Amino acid sequence: MTRKNSGFAADLAAGIDLSEEQAPQRRTGIASNVLTGRSNRLADLASGAVINRMQELVDPARCRMWEGHNRDYQLLTEERCADLIDSIKAQGRQEMPAIVRRVSGEPDYDFEVICGARRHWTISWLRSHNYPDFKFLIDIRDIGDEEAFRLADIENRARDDLSDLERARDYLRALDLYYGGRQKTMAERLNVTESWLTRYLDLARLPEELTRAFPNLQDLGVRNGIALKGLLKPEERKARAFAEAGRIAEARKAGAPVQTVVDIIKTLTLAVDPPKKSGSPKKSGRGETITSEGGRPVLRIEGSDRKGVRLTLLHKGGASRIEAELALKAILDQHWS
Known about the structure:
Elements (H helix, E strand, L loop, with lengths): L2 H14 L12 H19 L6 E5 L4 E3 L16 H10 L6 E5 L8 E5 L1 H11 L8 E5 L4 H12 L7 H16 L3 H8 L3 H11 L3 H4 L10 H8 L5 H19 L7 H12 L3 E3 L9 E4 L5 E8 L4 E5 L7 H15 L2
Helix pairs in contact: 1-2, 6-8, 8-10, 11-12, 12-13
């Protein structure tokens, strides 16, 4: 708070505090509490301990979504907002205000929503489903686009209902729009590491030729993106991955059972990198080693007899769990009728 404003607020507070000779008889009860609360409020304003926000209850139809909002509004449904619907019904009102800013020159709208798409959708839904008196609680801010992006990110980063893909696509859009493609600058502004941000950007950059293998893209998480990115180099591996993704998509259209994300990634990986045997049995009798495409040891075949096959899982050899599962599947296919 500036010195001028601080002095103004202090003068207001001082104006309430009359001397004993001038002061009327001390009020009691509610009147006393009101004056005490007002004096405390002015004192807090003077000290900078309180920041005034402008909150209003408005018709949600007068609010539109900000074009930079990080949630896909079209994906919101009664099921996805069920927890919020129940909460607002129980409380009788919206407890947490949405963050908005004013718009001008548009007769149909007064505000655009920076944070609070689910709250906006839920209040709109309730008003059209037997709760016409509910209003949309908003917190009006005067902020620019880059600040609005960071504010929305902070609010939504900890929310489980926002998918990794929605967040990833929002980051990719913001990278060029607000930060000139400078990933390091963006990471600093968001107060995250570059590696953390890279994982989300990689997920958003996955090509449609690969992601078409998945029936619901919103199920893809950051960890899935790491595994899928590894299928895109070199070019011959990427071509095999694209071909297999197309085959999976066509099979699903033809009525094949819908696979989980993990199962689809396993299928793609197996099509790109069939497990290979490398090396020859050592004289020590320690068997032969199965390695990944990158040469990382996955497991070792110690030997086989009438009772079965003896394996050693090399879980500290640097290979991923998916590579280990694919290698085990290849051995099962070989030995299990």
